[in-house]
Structures are given as C-alpha cells and as structure tokens.
Amino acid sequence: MSHHIVEVKDLEYSYPDRTPALRGVSFRIEHGEAVGLVGANGAGKSTLLLHLNGCLFPERGTVRIGDYPVTRQTLPQIRRSVGTVFQDPNDQLFMPTVEEDVAFGPINLQLPPEEVEQRVVRSLESTNSLHLRQRPPYRLSGGEKRSVAIAAVLAMSPDILVMDEPTSGLDPRARRRLMDLLAGFTHTKIIASHDLDMILSLCPRTIVLHQGTIAADGPTAAVLADQDLLLRSGLELPLRVQGCPICGRSCGGHPRP
Amino acid sequence: MTRIEAGIGDLDTLDRLAAQDSPIHRLDPRAKVIATALFLLTVVSFSKYDIAGLTPLFLYPAVLLTVGLVPVRVLLRYLLIACPFALLVGVFNPLLDREIVVRWGGLGISGGWLSFGSIVLRFLLTASAVLLLLACTGYVAVCAALGRLGAPHLLTMQFLMLYRFIFILTDEGSRMVRAHGLRSFGAGRTTIRVWGSLAGHLLLRAYDRGLRVHAAMLARGFDGTPRTLRVSRWSLTDTAFVLGCGLFLALVRFGDPVDRLGSWCVGVFR
Ligand SMILES: Nc1ncnc2c1ncn2[C@@H]1O[C@H](COP(=O)(O)OP(=O)(O)O)[C@@H](O)[C@H]1O
Ligand SMILES: [Mg+2]
Fold it and tell me: How far apart are CA B92 and CA B116, in angstroms?
C-alpha cells in the first residue's frame, strides 16, 4: 500500500518570530518502517513532527502522507491516517473525563456508539489505564496523563503513529509497557526521543537532526554508535553502547537486536 | 495548595456533579436548555419593582436542586462568588431612586430599594438556573445541545473554547504562582513590576497553550461540532418536562398565583 508513506522534501520552516527551526529537511519513510528521530533540545524535532499532521504548513518544500500532499484541503484525510502524540500531554487532554477524552477522536470520526465504546476500552486497556476512565485528566500524574494521551491516539487506529518524546515522564515499568505496545504496532511509526536506548530497541532506522538540518540518516545501530556524530549533534552514546561502567570494556558498538 | 489551585478544584465541581445519575440528569440536554431559557425569559420579563411576583419562581431551582442531587452548599458557594457583580449593578439604585412606592405600616420603602431587591432576586434566580443546568447536564453536553437546537456554530465553538481556556488559564496561573513562590522565599511584598511581568507572561503562555490545545483537537478530527459520547434521544418525558415547566412559568407570570393564593386564604379565614 502506498498509504503509509511519509515523504518530506526540502522542508523549511521559521516560526513567526523568525526563529529558523527547519532548514531544508528531506527524507522518505516507507510503509511499516519504524524511525527514530533524535537531536538536542531545540534541534527541530517537534517542529518537524507538527508538519506531518498539518498543524504547521511548510514555508518551502513539501510534505506528503501516502497519496496526499499536506495542505489545508487534504487535512481531513491526513488527520485520519496520522495519529500524533504531542510532547506535552497537558495539551492533548481537554475533555472533562478520561473516557470522553479518549472517545473524542472516534466520535469525530463519526463511528457508531458501540464501536466508540469498544475502542475506548481497548485502547485504555492496552496502555493499562482503564481504571482511570472516570477521572478528570488534569488530576492525573504526569505518567498517567501520558498513558491516557497515547490511548487517545490509539483509539483512532491511525495508519501512521507519530510520537514526540513518548517515554519522558514514565516510570521504568510504564516505559517498558509502552515499548512493548509500540513494538506490537506494525504500522509506520516515527518516534522523536532523547531515550536513545528505546530508539535502539524499537527503530531500525534513525534520523539525527541538528539545528534544523539532517545530520545523519541510516541504520540505528550505525548511527547511534558514531560517537563523533552524536557529540557534534549534542547527544551522547546510548548507555547500552557505552563501555561497561565497572570494567570499562565496550561491547564494540554492536548492540544486540 | 495555593488559592488558585483550590479554585480549579471549584471549577470542575459542576462537571463532577454532572456525572451523577438522577431523573433530571437523564433528561435530554435540549429539554433542559429549553426549560432554562424559558425560565430566564420569565425572570427578566417581570417589572423592576415586582418582588412578590418573582418569589414563586424559587420553586424551580428548589425542585431541580432536590431531584438533581445538587448539594445546596455547592450552589451557594458559586452564587457567593458571583454575588458581588449583582450587588455592584444594584447598589446605586437606592441612592438614585428615592421615591416612596410602598408603605408598610410606618415604614416607607423607596423604589430604589425595591428595584435593588428585585435585581438581587433576579440574579439569584437566573444564576442558580444556569448553574443547575450545568450541574445536571455538563458543559460540553450543554454546548452540544445548543448546537443541536440550531445555535450558530461559531457561538457553541466559542463557548467550548472559553471553557477550555478557563482551565488553561488557571492551570498556567497556578504553575507560575508556584514557581514564583518557590523562588521569592516568601519575601513579603511582590512588586508591581513582578506582578506585571507575571500577568503578561500568563496571558502569552495561556495563548500559546490555547493554540497547542486547538492543534491537538484538530489533530483528532475536531471539525467545530461539539459531540458527546452519549447522544440522547428526545422522549416523552422530555416533552412532559418542557410542557410542565412552561405551564408553571406561564402560571407564575400571567396567573398571579400570589394574589390568588392571598385572596383564597383571605376567603378561607373569613
Ligand atoms: N512557538 C514557537 N515560537 C518561536 N520559536 C519556537 C517555537 N517553538 C519552538 N521554537 C524554536 O524552534 C526551534 C526548534 O524547536 P523544537 O522543534 O521544539 O525543538 P525540539 O523539539 O527538537 O526540542 C528552537 O530553536 C525553538 O526555540
Ligand atoms: Mg520537542
């Protein structure tokens, strides 16, 4: 299916206050690929992801999702196929209860009520937050909010899953659970994160952003083992690739799959 | 907890009450919106000196309150918060309008005092009717009902956004106040300059948050139509409720029940 392809060509974007955030970014992500997006703070990760669901429009260059270029006219189709988990879950949870919030997307897709209910239960279960169902979202802890925000996006069954720092604010168990969940999600996924160990285990391919340009794009194992490249881009080797803190021996930059 | 944080707790009390179950809650939101609208119209249609005519209307909030399981305490607290505005509107009437209209024994009551009383009564009636509507229905459901009743898209959208914005504003506000409190070490007075900067930041931050929330809503397929989880159907009970309310209001407005009751009592005791 050409449905779940993401193609970005010469994308440039500056914020209204003239902060240049993206200066010529191009890549193509095939159907079913899982791609990690890494880069220092302010490298432009969030800005790039906001272009993939039409929250921002390119100043120059194009973004294509499947068969459609991202423009105002194609927004309904784009938003049906791209599910975005935003960086700050506070921005994403806006209904009076968790249940209503998760149902928000499916209701807007105008699904029948039983189907909506089913999706709400299923997606809350998959993020282990079904017990939060009746709670108001702004009363939850950071990690709980994150889980609910993810459930809210999964409830729309997107073809392409875009996540901005999904593991930040999660405790180790919740992080592990999320990683298992994402590993089971076979559609295209794009994950921006500082959690390089997660990227290493979830995404075979990694794109490194540095000051609004692509510094590297290739197999994760190679990219995340390149110490020079990572240092230049304001990052560090993932723990798993670093030498053992006790004996100092390195596993040679060959992370086990 | 700062006072602002406690304030947020207050704000969502109505939504939590709306999640209860009672005969009133089970009514179609549209029926409740129509009844409330009729009630508001009736209240404002009374003349400005008519206090006696208004009093029977208190039956309406009293019934909703009891059947709808809304604690009196909650309603009173909200009324108390909003009360200063009503007082402010009415407070000059006694000074401006000194003509005596009613004599009660030796006591002359001026038109100003009467209209002041009527403003306060009307405020109590209208505010409790709206609060009860929200407490028995929920904000989003009320907006959705307004939309289904044919209110302009833009209006319901504005209402929805306003509601979201209140939460965003208080949320950002409480975080900023906390951050400020943590670094000012309780140092007595906060200067005007700092307050000004805090307030300016608050608006900008809330505005940014508002944009991001809106983006998140759009990303999940929001097209401007407020929709709710349970779409209710209009039933016979709803018709009965609206008719009942209409009848009661018509009786109070045109039937002059106080006079009737009065003359009836006089007749009985003679
Ligand atoms: N709303 C905004 N207005 C102006 N500049 C912004 C805004 N959001 C982000 N930026 C700037 O754009 C650049 C990229 O930001 P962002 O995409 O959020 O980075 P990342 O998510 O990689 O940390 C940064 O220099 C940041 O300061
Ligand atoms: Mg970011």
Answer: 8
Query: pLDDT, tens digit, for every residue of B15-58?
Result: 888 888 899 999 999 999 999 999 999 998 888 778 888 889 99
pLDDT tens digits, one per residue of B129-138 = 999 999 999 8
Q: Are strands A34-38 and A60-65 parallel, antiparallel or unpaired?
A: unpaired
Each residue of B147-179: b (16+ CB within 10 Å) or e?
bbeeeeeeebbebbbebbeebbbbbbbbebbee
Among B18, B19, B220, the residue with its CB nearest the CB of A104 is: B220
Give the nearest chain B residue to A84 (CA atoms). B219
The torsion angle over the Cα atoms of residues B32, B33, B38 and B41, rounded to 10 degrees, is 140
Domain residue spans of chain A: 2-88+159-174+182-232
Candidate CATH numbers 3.40.50.720, 3.40.50.300, 3.30.2130.30, 3.40.50.150; the one for domain A2-88+159-174+182-232: 3.40.50.300
Predicted model pTM: 0.73
Question: Which ipTM score applies to this complex?
Answer: 0.74
Q: Which of B171, B216, B223 sits opposite A138 (nearest CB)?
A: B171
Amino acid at A9: K
